[in-house]
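Record 1 of the preview.
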Amino acid sequence: MAEDSTDTTEENGALADALAAEHAAVWGYGVVGAALPAAQRQAVTAAENAHRDVRDQLTSLLTERGEDPAGPEGGYALPFPVLSAVDAAALAATLEDGVASAWVRVLDRATERPTRELAMSVLGAAEVRAVGWRGAAGRTPMTRALPGLAAQ
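->
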């Protein structure tokens, strides 16, 4: 079955948005790590590396599709001041929620099975990380039935 070029264009647009969310997450984890004691940075490093890997995978995928993937911005606005370890955990949860939202859009626009599989994998990993960060930030509920969708 041939793909509709409009569908492919929408899928590539959603992947570009997911790439932007991954760039923001990589940058944001630098802020998270800076606000945590060294003993608590292992989870930050793991999350940042996971987002770097996805970012690199997306960059390659978009390039293979003939797209010109955007690079990271020089800096990003924080949604709130990060003045404590609790704030850092809340920021990490917010970053994961932002990534999850972008990947839900990829699922909505995906026309290719490998794209849907990638989206489900990244979405699941983002929610697993978010659960830990929500717990560290004292947020409830810690889990979401439908990660990436706006809370109802």
